[in-house]
Amino acid sequence: MQAALAELIACNQLEEIDNNLYTGHSSRREGARIYGGQVLAQALSAAQRTVPGEYTLHSLHSYFMRMGDPRRAVVYEVDPIRDGRSFVTRRVVAKQHGKAIFSAALSFQLPEEGLEHARPMPDVPGPEGLASDAELYREVFAGGDYGWPIEFRQVAPQDLKKPQPTEAVSYAWFKTTDRIGDDLATHQQMLAYASDNPILVTALRPHGVSHMSPDVMVITLDHALWFYQPFRVDDWLLYEVHSDVAGHGRALSRGRIYNRQGQLVAAVSQEGLLRIRK
After folding, report:
1. Do residues 101 and 95 lie in contact, with contact meaning Cβ atoms separated by under 8 Å?
2. What are 199-228's pLDDT values in tens digits?
3. pLDDT tens-digit map of 8-42
4. Would you state the pLDDT for residue 134?
5. Is residue 117 part of a domain?
6. Are residues 96 and 143 in the same domain?
7. Are residues 101 and 161 in the same domain?
8. Given 189, 202, 220, 234, which residue is catalytic?
9. Do 227 and 144 fall into the same domain?
């Protein structure tokens, strides 16, 4: 298995230090802060450890309150709010230095039959032949090690050196860099990890800047995720993102995630800080 992916999966196998209390480390320990998707995935892992296996996550609503330190462990405290017959609810608070850096409410559901409909998958080119983000980043950082455990291929990537104003819409194919087995809980953790990547930066597109532009600050404030179909994150998934509004230093984006068969498997919503430092 590709090394970065193996480390990510290992870091999501949290250490239990007491009842409903777990600790984990960032898989990317460089930089000023922990990548938000890492905290999402570990909070989900902590909640899953307290839920019977027949229940699967159907929704997650979270808030990022402080930047996480990638060089220190994160403590995850799970509150078993409710165990019902059809739904199980958990609350998770992640802490460092004795202070909350993140909180999430998670709801798990037993499999159930019901009415079904979904917005059709957009008609965009498939991942074959598209440049990967690793290739795009090498054009900016010659000789740099991209090192991500998720491969992204954007349908219409921004020019990171000279971004031009475009519509606030993006499409990106993504999958893990290697196979990860059949455990749905692990696939949900990996999708949660990946879902924090291209969604908020789509709000930069109308303004002719990218997350690499000087003096641009992009930080997640809250993140919501809903699952509707089983899926594999080690096969290509399409992430469709629209940013509906930006103002007052914040931006809102929403995403839909489809599998290769055109099924809408997950939906995402995120608000974040979008600032130009003066």
Report:
1. yes
2. 999 999 999 988 888 888 999 999 999 999
3. 999 999 999 999 999 999 987 667 899 999 999 99
4. 87
5. no
6. no
7. no
8. 220
9. yes
135 to 146, 151, 209: CA distances (angstroms): 9, 10, 20
Provide the total of helices (H) and of strands (E) in the chain, helices listed first.
4, 12
How far is residue 230 from each of residues 49, 153, 156, 202, measured CA to CA in Å?
A: 19, 22, 28, 26
Q: Is 270 a catalytic residue?
A: yes
What are 272's two structure tokens? 């974040």
Active site residue 186: no
**DSSP states of 35-66 as a string?**
-HHHHHHHHHHHHHTTS-TT-EEEEEEEEE-S
Residue 122 lies in a domain: no
Catalytic-labelled residue, pool 186, 188, 189, 270: 270
The gap from C-alpha 44 to its chain's centroid, in whole angstroms, comes to 11
**Among 112, 111, 131, 24, which Cα is nearest to 68's?**
24
Number of domains comprising the chain: 2
Catalytic residue among 133, 196, 202, 234: 196
